[in-house]
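Example record

One chain of 502 residues, shown exactly as stored in the release files.
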Amino acid sequence: MSPLDVTTPLGASQALLPEILLAGWTLIVLLVVAWRHTTAGDSRLAGWLSLAGIITSGAALAWLWTSGARATGLAAMVALDEYRFAAAAIILLAAAGTVLVSLRYMEREGLIAPEYYPLILLGTAGMLFMAGAEDMMVLFLGLEVMSVAVYVLAGYDRRDIFSSEAALKYFLIGAFASGFLLYGIALVYGATGQTGFTLIGAQLGGGGQVPMIAALGLGLLLIGFGFKVAAVPFHMWAPDVYDGSPTPVTGFMATGVKVAAFAALSRMLVEAFPHAVQLWQPVVGVLALATMLVGNLVALAQRTIKRMLAYSSVAHAGYLLVAIWPGTQLGASAVMLYLFAYSLSTLAAFALLASLGRDGERTVRFDDLAGLASRRPWTAFGLAICMLSLLGFPGTFGFIGKWYILQAVIADSHYILPVVLVVTSVVSAGYYLPVIMSMYMRPSPEHPTDAGLELPRTAAAVVIVSLAAVVLFGILPGSMVDAALRGAGTLAQQVITTAGAR
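Predicted structure tokens for this chain:
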């Protein structure tokens, strides 16, 4: 994925401007919370400052996106293309939404501590590094910055044994996955003498078979990414971690972490391993099949909303792996389009869930939503839209995302993955639609779990914007589809190489 071919050269400080500004703003927030960190007002101040930092980073990203530039020197290790910019924009939107949802939630749950918002900013910076990495070293750096921050966020509620368990499991499994990635990078470097994606692709494309050591490195990299995206059979950490973490953190993990991991995985496979497509395509296909089947079937057996959404996230990782499978420009655009649709729906769903219970919302069951439409009609309406979009119901952005995944795979003359995707999407109706049925078709319980709770204004703003986008782009998807195709347009050179490798 080559940098934009224009005449303006950029050094590292400019090519990494969004990440540098975000890291600098993190230091500012840390100084503020070291001075003021004892009251709810101090926590809100840290949250608003963090939101300002995300907006500042977004402004720098917009400048890079619109100015057009090429990287020089060390900056060539970071992509300067629309694919990076689109992924980074989704990550920043997810981070901003998480901050807004957290503002009142953390006060309500009594989780007033100085490090929460700086950790969100650090995790977001790591995600931006991952999304823009053109080099294995930058990829690993971003992965570790992101992971360490999210490990702590998962266990942020120190009073809750389930939150502590979530952090420990995430840390142990995450360290295990990082080890696979690091060994994979080492083997690929040993085979090619390069760490840059395009340089690795050039070395492996010199003719003949892919060296065994490079093939082993690719296998280890796929295992490491399998853990990070929660693909079956590497998904065992996701349900417990998502279930035990504070709900805004769960939404952050389900959106930002997934976007960063899938953006990095698709870029790495297309740029660094186009000549190894015969090796990685069957593996990705099997992972996609297993992830769609297991994620959807196990989600059917869940009785709590949060755990159901956790297994739903696993299933959606399978859909995204289907989009990655072709290794084409159309597949890459489908990945980005679906990530955006999924992030909007999931962020809104967790924001709404945060207003339906207490203590991490772990115990909010399907039955607890009975009669929600009569008690809180707008909350029920928003949650219904989220469920329909995640299901892929026509008229929602989620449907458009799945439609373009199907197009990308069918264009490659493959039909097994699309058939399984459609069948498992039908299966998912078995756990999405009961949420809607419970809210609208069952009487309200005598003592509802959401008694005395309401959706704060900041969280309501996140829900309104997200759902408006879900409906708007579901009815008028043309602009987003065109943007996704342009974002993947810089993959064209690698797509030609990949087709030749086949």
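Notes: The chain is about 75% helix and 0% strand.
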